[in-house]
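Researcher: Going back to the complex we discussed earlier. I've cleaned up the inputs and rechecked each line, so this should be the final set. Can you rerun the prediction on the complete assembly and write out the structure?
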Amino acid sequence: MNGSALINANPVVHERKERVTRREVHDSSAEPIDALEVFDHVRDIKDPEHPYSLEQLKVVTEEAITVDDKKSHVMVVFTPTVQHCSMATVIGLCIRVQLMRCLPPRFKIDIKVAPGSHASETAVNKQLNDKERIAAALENPNLSELVEDCLAPASY
Amino acid sequence: MDGTPLSSSWLVHLRAYVNTDLPSSHQIEGRDAIAELISKNALSLPRLVSEMGDILTSTDAVMRARGILLLGELWMHFVAKPFDATILHHFAAFFAARLEDWHSLHGALIGSLALLKREKHVGVVDNDDAKALLKSALENVEVQALVQEDRMFCLEFFECLLVGYPEAISSHGTLFVERLCGIIDGEKDPRCLLLGFHIVELAAQIFPDPAGYIGSVIEDLFDLLSCYFPISFTPPPDDNWGITREDLSVALMHCLGATNLFAEFSIPFLLDKLSSSLKNAKLDSLKFLGFCVSRYGAEELRNHSTAIWMALKQELFSSYKVEEAISKERDNQTFHEALNCLQACLKLQAGNKDDMLSLERNSLLELVVEDPFINDFFDCISGHLIQTSARVTVCSTGNGDIALERALTTIKETGLILTMAAKASPASCFAVTHRIFPNLFNLLRPGICIKGSDDEKKFEGIPVKSSLWFPDDVLLTVLEVIRLIIEGVKGLADSVLKLQGTYSDVKWIGPLQLNSEDLLMSFIAITVSGLQNRMDIDAILIDRTWNVGVAGLQAVGSFPPQLSILSRVQYDYLFSFLKYITLSKSEATSLWNRTVDAIRVICTAEEHFSCQGLGSMFRDSLIASLLKEVDNYSESLPVLCSLKALSVLCTGGAEILTNSTRKLTELLCEDLKKFVRIASEEDNTVKRILPLSQGLLDYILPCCMKVDMDVEVLLGLAVNLWHIVENFPEDGLLKDSRDNIQVLQNCLGIVQICVFHCDAPSQRYLMLEIVGPFVEATSHIFGSLGLKDIWLIGFFSSMIISLRPSIHIPRAECVLHRLCAGAVSLSCGSVNLIASEAVGCLVNKWQSNGVEMQVSNGISLSIAEALDLIIKGEWVSTALCNQTGTACLEPEKALVLKMGCIKLLGYAGKGLAIRGHIGVSDIAMLLLSLVHCKKILVDAKQKNLLQFLWPNDEERLSIASAAADALGFIAKDLGSSGWRQSHLVIKPLHQQRFFVSMLAPLELVLKESEEQERIILYYAFANLISSIPANVILMESKRVFPFVLESLSALSSAEMFSTSLSSVLLVLSAILVDKNGAELASRHLSAVVGRLQSLIQYQYSVTVRETSLLCLGTLVALPYARVFPFRTQVLKSLTNALDDPKRSVRKEAVRCRRAWELLTR
Amino acid sequence: MEMDVVQELQGHSDRVWSVAWRPDSGISGRPSMLASCSGDKTVRIWQCSSSQDLFIQHWSCVAVLDGMHQRTVRSCEWSPDGKLLATASFDGTTAIWENVGGDFECVASLEGHENEVKSVSWNCSGTLLATCGRDKSVWIWELQPGNEFECTSVLHGHSQDVKMVLWHPCEDILVSASYDNSIKAWIEDKDREDWVCAQTLSDSWGHTSTVWTVSFDASGHRLVSCSDDLSLKIWDSHSNLLSEGNLWKHLCTISGYHDRTIFSVHWSKASGLIATGAGDDCIRIFSEESNEKSTLGGDLTYKMVLKKEKAHITDVNCVRWHPQEASLLASAGDDGVVKIWKVAGESLY
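Model: Rerun complete. Updated structure for the full complex:
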């Protein structure tokens, strides 16, 4: 972004996990929202500073997502590519925004960086879960533009 | 001569062109304007040049350059315009001179190239001009110094010369070749390189002489070229010439293969590169090697054969040379490339015709067949056999036994190599087969314990004899290898024969002939070994044995007769074995299918070589015995199997098919006669007639498509069956059991196909034969129909269905009447539909040829009248055994009857609709008023029928929806309507016509109707619209749109309409993406949005929810100003969809939401 | 004790951040009036058709204040006399609206904060205005004649952005709550003629995460604060406020009730009940354990007397008691809805 050097110039890129195609159940039985579904929402988010998806960078994994449809709660734990990734908050922001758009409003969303995966872990977590700050951030043109870029699906 | 007045005008253009201050667009306009004048002959080139004098000679280099360029481009523009020799000559000289002026070079090059590009018929420059141009170019142009574009022109220039003026080139050979080297040297641009390679290729072919121009510099040239190998080039992302690495590589390959002068350098070079660790280098050098060697010829090969073989071996065996190599998966690509290379080389091996045994010393062939690797092959086989011979082996695949794995790999690979070698050329085939087969079988024979005294050749004996024996994995693999080789050689034999004709030399096949007995026996034995049902062997393995066995036999047996490897005796043996398998009751169907197919292949093999062999004789005998099987209905082979086998063999020819069908006809008739008299279920007749009729229908008759069978037979079959049915005893004991109905259905199918394939005359004859009896037989009251009558109606209907349009039907009125009655008559349950279809066909073809249908009393009946006959519906009372009205019937029967009528009307209507006859509207209106349950739209003549069909309150819904379905059926396209294609009269766009004709009435009745009545009307609409192709609807979108919107809300009321709902939604989605449709939508946007918003909550159907979300999503494509106001509301409504119980819906919702989200940005 | 919705006020197209009753609501027949501010960049004024009979009330939107703020309006507060409304916005400005005969016009725009302004508050006399924001600073403005506002002081001290400022109901003491987990009390140093931090409530008794809201009881002796650490804290002050260095001491902590962040707490002037709104969509009401000890300043306890599940379908951002009418409560949520509640139960009287 704007010419400044990358925080992590050459990240490790992992294989995309192939899309699980679930068999369509054509009865009226409900299909509760689960980790995989949430993962499908966030896996293709583009990393703010690499041309790769969060999945390819193993920033998000299905395993690191916990969902409780009954309690309407989602917890996403993500792992920044490097210890002092200044982009961590942006990534978290992207994840939150995406989930706010994709999940029904009843859901409470918690987003955290994986323990020990970031230098200022607590600070980042606190910021990511302060709704006021999120709201403010999204009204900041540069930031929201950056977020939109990351969220723009390749397949649109 | 062109007059001065215009000169002024074109001088403007001229100045525009040479004026470099102007934007290039002006310059181009200027040029084109001049070109225009010239092509209109309003201006001549000489005149132009003379006018340009001051420009062309100007001291201003730029000005001069522009001038020349103009001329150059003009010539390029007129490459196809005839000019006389003098002008061409002048300009050739002109450009040749200009090539000296490096300022003007660009234009001069284009000009010269343009001159050389010309075709003969429009006049070309002569040799001397070409020479002049070449000379000047060679002396003045420093190609490498030029920019890419000019280099291109230069190369093309040389290319043209090489193609068109070789002697011009040779006149300046030395200098040219010198330049050529210069050009190739370090060229980086792919386009130029491509041309460069081609030029070298051309030049090399023009100067083949070792002492010639190319020969003299060959080594330098090769050094220059070899730098490019292996080509490494990845097209740039913005590449717009589409040149790939492949193209360059191929070009280089052809270049190196162009002359064997290269051989002494290229072959060692490539062999050296072969040892490279780069995969690309490896693959390319193998490709190049194969190609070049086959171009250079046997001579060159001889000089390098040892080196080549050594190198190839490296590649071929690398996979198991290394210890742990088996574990790491092999590099198949290289392996196969190496194989191809080997084959390419071996193709050159001519071999010594008279004495094939004596192989030329150190020829590649000798090296191959004498190579120790073959011994390894034998060793590992014999080694394995020894260690296993002791015990009876049942091989267990995939046990971790490394040794075994090793053995298998060795065998497979060697097998592939030997196969490649064997099928390369007769000589190599001889060498290989002679080398390996005797030893091989010496090893195998004890394993395959089959060769024995003659009495053991009885196959019944074999399973017993070899019951203990089952091939283990190694043995199987070996046999697979043998099969591969045989198949390879067979392919070779075919092609050899095609080349040399019948008088081909057959020595080379000798070794195979010598070993034919063993080949035959091994394949038979292995096939048989799979037959013993042994629990301890898994099915896959058994299947493998059959695969190898039968495929092997097929290969052995299908050699062209001239090169046959089997003796007469062996053929008989083979055949009787195959026959044994075919006829033996075998639950092993995969074996059975393979065998039958093998027989077909073997029998047809000889036909390709126009020579009567044993095959056809055998086939005939087999067919005979199959028929016999069916005839005396022996339990041993299921009738269906026999018929299937027959059908396979019958593809051999019309005659065979005809004969066997004739025979089968007899049998069928025979059975049918007995059939009606069956007293007890024990009787075999049912047991046979069921599969017999089935088989005829499913296997035999379909062959008519492939081979045109004698219509006599078909007609005969139909007529005979008819007569039998006709003569059914009234008191026939025919019971209405499931079997019997099945038999009936089969027979009807048979009759239909037969008649369908009959030509017009025989169909006419048929009608004369049957109409009379039919009418007589069905004259009595319908109410009390016996099963005989059902058969009659069924048969008759099936025949009517298959008639060609041109066929007269005597007493048509009667026929129509009876068929209608039959279609609805309760006692005809199983043939109702067929009768309805017959009626449909009848009205469809009625009078279509302009000739009117004969009626009993000789007066003819027009289609309109025929239609009235249906509409008036007197036949109903016939069906009702003459009681008027349904009063006498118990309600459910009455309903069934009415439903029957509605179906019939559907068929009749469709018949008319397809031929595009307006009559359909009468029927449609009748149906519509049933849907609507109001008697508008119908006139007097329909009253009677309508009266009868009129529903009471209980029936209302079922009648209405049945009628709606019937309307849908009329609109459907033939394919999906389930109406068999039977010589129907089809008018293009008939669907569209009908659909459009329905819109107005629908609008009308909708206005008339109450809120809740509409629902069913919209259901009808949904039926119509879902049967019509989208493009048709789009043409009418303006009128359709309101309906669509309305039905969306109407149909959402009840669950039963959910499918209609989704089909309407699909239509909507189609409309929304259509241009005009989109306009409509944006005009009624709030309505659309409203409907969709409620539908995304529709609880009964997931598809409805998904589709409506889809539609909602597409709306954002509409004009922003219109859509945006809905944004907030839509997003709000979507939050519920995000929480849909179904995942698929949620996904769609997310997409949709995203689309609307983005509206702000 | 129970509570039911009197009316849902629909209109905002984005989350509602905060609501404010006009102080004189219901006094001498004046209709109750409520201001709500939202992420849709607007402020809405709601008025109750009848202030007399609270049983047949109807609320309607009487004004929409838009076009002024470029971003979310985070908080809004009425001046004590109810004539002015101050609104703080993420666009960095604080706007002052004057209510002239029902119409509201923007009479002043206070600029100075580097970025988001998050809270605004009037002092009891209505002469001073305080604002705070993400720039970690607290600003104090003085109201000059003619709706001129002059910044008299910019207070630094918080290490993170300041979530809320609130004036003492009867003294000129300012309290600020911050993302740095602390609460600070500011008083004017007469000698230095400037405002200084008199106390920082962040000791071992303090909150362990962001402090979102603070609220005084009627007397101003007690202060309640709510936090992201899922607890409420009651702070008590001694008799004479200004003399001593330490103004407040931790009285008690109310925890174990809330499951998610507590965004809002409000102490009813009328009934003394404490209401909270939290990220678990619930509204809770607490009342003081009525036993003698407490009056002796002994260990006093507060118990939850009501928990309203699903008060909103989303986070509850703000709860405010009616200044006069003890049974009325207003709440605002992420669902863009403002709700008027009627609370019934003996502890009201």
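Model: Worth noting: The interface with chain C takes residues 105-106, 108, 126, 129-133, 135-136, 139 of chain A (CB under 8 Å).
Researcher: Good, that matches what I expected from the previous run.
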